[in-house]
Amino acid sequence: MKPEIYVFILSSYLYRCFAIVGPITEDFVQYLKEVEHTNSGLLRHVKSFDHTGSFGGKSFPQEKVKHSPIVFIHGNSDSALKYGNDQYQSGWDTVVQYFMDRGYTLAELYGISYGDRNMTQSVFRVFNCQDLLLHRQLLLSVLVYTGARHIDIIAHSMGVSIARAIIQGGKFTSEKESCDLGSDFSSLIGTFIAISSANYGMCSCEAGTAFPACDKEIGFFPGYCPRQNCSSPSIKIGAQCYKTKYSKFLTKLNKVHKKEAEFIASIWSKDDEVFLKGNLVWGKQTSLVPGSNIWKEYPQLTHMETKTETAADQFKIITSRSAPSAQTKKSYAKRKNWNFY
User: 45-72: buried (b, 16+ CB within 10 Å) or exposed (e) per residue?
Assistant: First the structure.
């Protein structure tokens, strides 16, 4: 090999080792093309976005994968990588860079965008077959491509519900469409970090069912409990409104009494402007994924900051399954008088 070619390859590899670069690498693209009839939708989707629309993949076929791969799933109207200057399209740049600064490479870190990355359209976004199937295929592709025994997932907001659905598998059905998400995938997920999720809906959707995002079937509808305040911290609320019927999609996810990963960590802010102060929905912590091994509540972080400003804790959870000041499921059950598996 000519020296100048070797230097070019080496410099390109080193650049990808230390800098976040999108879209997914050519090596990953070529792998997806090997089974194009299966991955055609994923390939078209990645191609439809710019360089901020996806990331991940080996720089060359022989590159070693030393860590369990991580798939990142962003929230409503966000992006795989930073898109523009809006805080709601901050992407995973900060978190991915934190991991790369500590030894991870893009061969171990993956993410794609979904939706239109337009915050003004966020109220019209619902769960759908396209987003679910694309992320399901990404999980399967990363697993086989890297040869890993299992993968980890870090998801934020709406991305947490997407992650839970594609891990559980089964059928997704709405009034407009139906699709098969495949078999249960939980045995192949090592650690799952759920950031600021809405597992029991959002109180801001209680009176907003005119917007698709708050839909009673495939949105974040929290249910309705007469003469009560949805976000109230009162202990009585939990007793009186515990059986309130909320989003059918979310209800189905929560009825599957099986953990989506070997280890689940839920983190959120009590001052989240999207979920309202306290993060409560009829007495339940909406960002606590059922079956979580540990949880952590932050003060004074915004909805997006729970993703961008908690990189150190995310890294700690992935690498050691712990985090400073994190609580266990037993401590939560004792504090809230609410048992969960």
Answer: bbeebeebbbbbbbbeeebeeebbbbbb
Tokens 């960002």 sit on residue: 287
Residue numbers of the domain that contains 185: 67-88+109-336
Helix segments in 49-146, DSSP class H: 93-100, 129-146
Predicted local distance difference test score (pLDDT) of residue 249? 98
Please name the residues in contact with 132: beta carbons below 8 A apart, sequence gap of 6 or more: 162, 165, 166, 172, 179, 181
CA distance 143 to 151: 7
Amino acid at 174: S
**Residue 18: per-residue pLDDT:** 54
Structure tokens at 86: 């809006």
- Cα–Cα distance, 277 to 245 (Å, whole number): 22
Residue 273 lies in a domain: yes
Host H or E run for residue 296 = strand 294-298
* pLDDT reported for residue 332: 54
Flag whether 144 is in a domain. yes
Q: What global pTM score does this model have?
A: 0.92
Q: Is residue 13 part of a domain?
A: no
Hey, is 33 helix, strand or coil? Answer: helix
The CATH number of residue 270's host domain is 3.40.50.1820
Locate all alpha helices (DSSP H) within 60-192, ordered by sequence: 93-100, 129-146, 158-168
The Cα 185–Cα 183 span in angstroms is 6
* Closest alpha carbon to 247 in 281, 220, 227: 220
Q: 62 lies in a domain? A: no
Q: What are phi and psi for residue 235, nearest 5 degrees?
A: -65, -30
What pLDDT, on the 0 to 100 scale, is given for residue 211?
95
Q: How many folded domains does the chain comprise? A: 1
Give the residue ranges of the chain where pLDDT is below 50. Answer: 5-15, 335-341
